[in-house]
Every structure is written in structure tokens, then in C-alpha cells.
Design a protein that fits this description.
2 domains, 5-stranded parallel β-sheet, 19 strands, 31% helix, globular, EC 4.2.1.33, Aconitase_4Fe-4S_dom
């Protein structure tokens, strides 16, 4: 019987197995940041264990970092202490660290792909749920807890039960104005936030094959939001072209040898999945969330459903929305374009293309937060910074920013924020804040109009 892409990568990394039980999986790359690593480092110290493979670990400061005045001392005590602890731990253990201000600094799931650290066929982990982003390259990438971070530090392996396999196939032609973010929000809205629980998901079909690597990363990033352990897309020429020439990518003959192997990383025709879904690209429209989980999403042309469920009604009450109403013309005061979901150069090109020659609405605070120092430099070199500033948008410095409000970038209580991040939980962007997830294009349009608009229709 043929193997799935997931099987091929997983089986190549199994070190040991317990019959009908968990397996020991070797981890190629371990990404760490300042929030989930200190406890794991402390556990190793207490047990007198050293880090097994420091050269397989890459660290960056991202979650707690300020996005203004990064050259100044950090004011927040917790953030300052966490970053100092990360620096100390990495120095003591000889781990590569991209500190605040370093040219390679940025959000962990943005810098690893753009530096060529992420490569097809790898196993990658990080103490962060959106590690699934890296699956866009045909890697097995997933988030782990603090105790597992310590386990990888100590052994470069993890004891795991192999997940079941799931495939979501989307074929057809996407409508104008539909981006990769809309595709994944549509999938989650259709299948539900528990549809992937216990599974590793492969995305297949011409829609994903035709996406850029940035688009594929957006899709895989939000696999966790439908409950999946992670998401994967088979590597192809688009993948190879993206990786080639990157700082840590293989060079010359080594690269050619790697590509020869990477080309084998696709699901065999006779492979079977534990669960399969098939969706049509033509059914997808620009999407918005109306509730407090990413599965509560509707097309821009749809109204909020009429559901009689206590948690549904609690969610609508929090958002101050009504059953049956449309979100079109809903006034908003904040727009956040950034996060590990949508903070790559392609996202900002999309926004610049829309806002060029327009002006941000007076009632809107619009924050643009690049995912890395490299993206920030591209924004400037490509002339996008001038477009943004002329349009009245605020371009900030790299970091996780208002995705999770661990720093000063918080949305005030009761305010609506159209956000390109990945979660719209209660208080996710600040206590009492109300998050509406959308694509960079939908967010840019809302910033200009001062309200949610249907971008499929020309502006009056």
C-alpha cells in the first residue's frame, strides 16, 4: 500500500517504537522563543542535564517584544526579564539567538522559512501552537508544551503517538479578491474547529498547488484552528525555488541532491487517509469571523446564522452582534495587519496595492507590523513604506504585536479590530476586545472605509 506525505516524513524520523504504542521521533529543528523556553531550561538545570544538540536549535525574541522604539530599553518588567533570560540561556547553552534588533530577528514562524532553516522533509517543533506554519514546505511541524520543550532539549527526540491522517482537497478557480486566508477560514467554517482533532492534515488540489509559499504558510498556520496537530502541503517547484539561495539552505550539488529527495515527498496514488474532505474553490468568497472562535466565519455575502445554542449566543453577546445580521457597513476602529499568519512581504504588497492613492478613515487606528527585520527592509526598499505613510497607516517594528496582546499593542475594551491574525478568542487582543478575522485585503479595505465593506463590489 502506498504512503501519504505525512507517513513518508514521519517514518523517516522514527528512532524507536513501542508495539501498538507511542514512537520516539527524531526532531531536525527546534525553534524557541522567550515565553515557553525559560521553564524548560530551568528543568534541565535542576536535573543536571545539558542540551543535547544546540546546533539544531534556533532562538528568536518575538512574543513580548515592543513594536516601537526597539532601540530603547524595554519598559515592561516581565517582557524585559523574559528577553534577558532567553539571552542568558542561549549564551550558556551555545544556541543561536536572534535578539531584538538583530537583522535576522522576527516572529519565529516568519524568520525560519525566510532564512532557509525550514526545509522539506524535516520534523520541526516549537513551544508555540502555530508551528504548523512550516508544514507549507512538506515538513512535519507542530507545537509542543513546555515539558516537551525540555524533552527535545535533553534528547532531540519526542515520545509521541502517531496522529491519524486527514486530507482536505480544494480544486477549481478562486474568485477575484479571495486570498489564502479566505481559503483556510472557509475550510474551518465548513468543517468546524474540532474536525482535525487527532489528525495531521494534508492540503491537496490545484488551489494549493497554485498558491505562493506565503499563501501556503497562511493555510498551514491555521491548521491548528480546526483542531489538527499540523498541516502539510507537498513540496514542488514553487517550494524549491523559494528555498534556493536562502542563507541556511543547501548550496550547489548538495541542493540538487536534496531536491531529488524532496521530489519523492508526495502522497502515493494508492495511499489512503483516515478521513477526507473535498471542497470547491468557486464556493469561497472573502471571509469574516463574527464570533469568538475561528470556525465562526461567514462569507462577506452571508448573514450571521440563526443558531439556538448557549455558547453561540454567549459569543454573539460578547461581540455585540445579532443573529441574522450582515457585517457589511459595521463600523470598526482598529485594523491589525501582521502576526505569523499574515506578516510576510506578499501580505504587505497586497495591502499597498489596495491603499495606494487612498486615505485611512479618520476613526481607524491601522497598525502594520512586519513579521521580521527582513520584511521591514523589503517594505522600505520596495517603496511600500511611503505608500502606507501617505495613506495614514502606522508602520511598526517586527514582532507578534497585537495578535495576542502580550506587549503594549492591545485593542481597547469594547472596540472592534479587523485582524489578519489567527485567533478571535475573548480577550485575545486585549481584555474585552472584539476581533474579526479577515484577509489583509479585507483588513486594508476596512481601514480605508472605516467600516467593513464588500471588496468584491466597486467602491461608490
Amino acid at each position: 500500500m502506498g504512503k501519504t506525505l505525512f507517513d513518508k516524513v514521519w517514518d523517516a524520523h522514527v528512532v524507536d517504537s513501542i508495539e501498538n504504542g507511542p514512537q520516539v521521533l527524531y526532531i531536525d529543528k527546534h525553534l524557541i522563543h522567550e515565553v515557553t523556553s525559560p521553564q524548560a531550561f530551568n528543568e534541565l538545570k535542576e536535573r543536571g542535564i545539558s542540551v543535547a544538540c544546540p546546533d539544531k536549535i534556533v532562538a528568536t525574541a518575538d512574543h513580548n517584544t515592543p513594536t516601537v522604539n526597539q532601540h530603547l530599553p524595554i519598559e515592561d518588567d516581565l517582557s524585559r526579564n523574559q528577553l534577558a533570560e532567553l539571552t542568558k540561556n542561549c549564551k550558556e547553552n551555545n544556541i543561536t539567538l536572534y535578539e531584538l534588533g538583530h537583522e535576522n530577528n522576527g516572529i519565529v514562524h516568519v524568520i525560519a522559512p525566510e532564512l532557509g532553516i525550514t526545509q522539506p522533509g524535516m520534523t520541526m517543533v516549537c513551544g508555540d501552537s502555530h508551528t504548523s506554519t512550516h508544514g507549507a514546505f512538506g515538513t512535519i511541524a507542530f507545537g509542543i508544551g513546555t515539558s516537551q520543550v525540555a524533552q527535545v532539549f535533553a534528547s532531540q527526540c519526542l515520545l509521541l503517538q502517531k496522529p491519524k491522517s486527514l486530507r482536505v482537497t480544494v480544486n477549481g478557480k478562486l474568485k477575484k479578491g479571495v486570498l489564502s486566508k479566505d481559503v483556510i477560514l472557509y475550510i474551518i467554517a465548513q468543517l468546524g474547529t474540532n474536525s482535525g482533532t487527532g489528525y495531521f492534515c494534508e492540503y491537496a488540489g490545484n488551489v494549493f498547488e497554485e498558491m505562493s509559499m506565503e499563501g501556503r504558510m497562511t493555510v498551514c498556520n491555521m491548521s491548528i484552528e480546526m483542531g489538527a496537530r499540523g498541516g502539510m502541503i507537498a513540496p514542488d517547484q514553487t517550494t524549491f525555488d523559494y528555498v534556493k539561495g536562502k542563507e541556511f539552505a543547501p548550496k550547489g550539488e548538495d541542493f540538487d541532491k536534496k531536491v531529488a529527495y524532496w521530489k519523492t515527498l508526495k502522497t502515493d496514488a494508492d495511499a489512503t487517509f483516515d478521513k477526507e474532505y473535498t471542497l470547491n474553490a468557486e464556493d469561497i468568497e472573502p471571509m469574516l469571523t463574527f464570533g469568538t472562535n475561528p470556525g465562526m466565519g461567514i462569507k462577506i455575502s452571508e448573514n450571521i446564522p440563526q443558531e439556538n445554542d448557549a455558547s453561540f449566543e454567549k459569543s454573539l453577546s460578547y461581540m455585540n452582534f445579532q443573529k441574522g445580521e450582515s457585517l457589511i457597513d459595521k463600523k470598526i476602529n482598529y485594523v491589525f495587519i501582521g502576526s505569523c499568519t499574515n506578516s510576510r512581504i506578499e501580505d504587505f504588497r497586497e495591502v499597498a496595492n489596495y491603499v495606494k492613492g487612498k486615505q485611512k478613515a479618520q476613526n481607524v487606528n491601522a497598525w502594520l507590523v512586519p513579521g521580521s527585520q527582513k520584511v521591514a527592509k523589503q517594505i522600505e526598499s520596495e517603496g511600500l513604506k511611503t505608500i502606507f505613510e501617505t495613506a495614514g497607516f502606522e508602520l511598526r517594528q517586527p514582532g507578534c504585536s497585537a495578535c495576542l496582546a502580550m506587549n503594549d499593542d492591545k485593542i481597547p475594551e469594547g472596540e472592534y479590530c479587523v485582524s489578519t491574525s489567527n485567533r478571535n478568542f475573548e480577550g485575545r487582543q486585549g481584555q474585552g476586545s472584539r476581533t474579526i478575522l479577515a484577509s489583509p485585503l479585507m483588513a486594508a479595505a476596512a481601514a480605508v472605509a472605516g467600516k467593513i465593506i464588500d471588496i468584491t463590489k466597486p467602491l461608490n
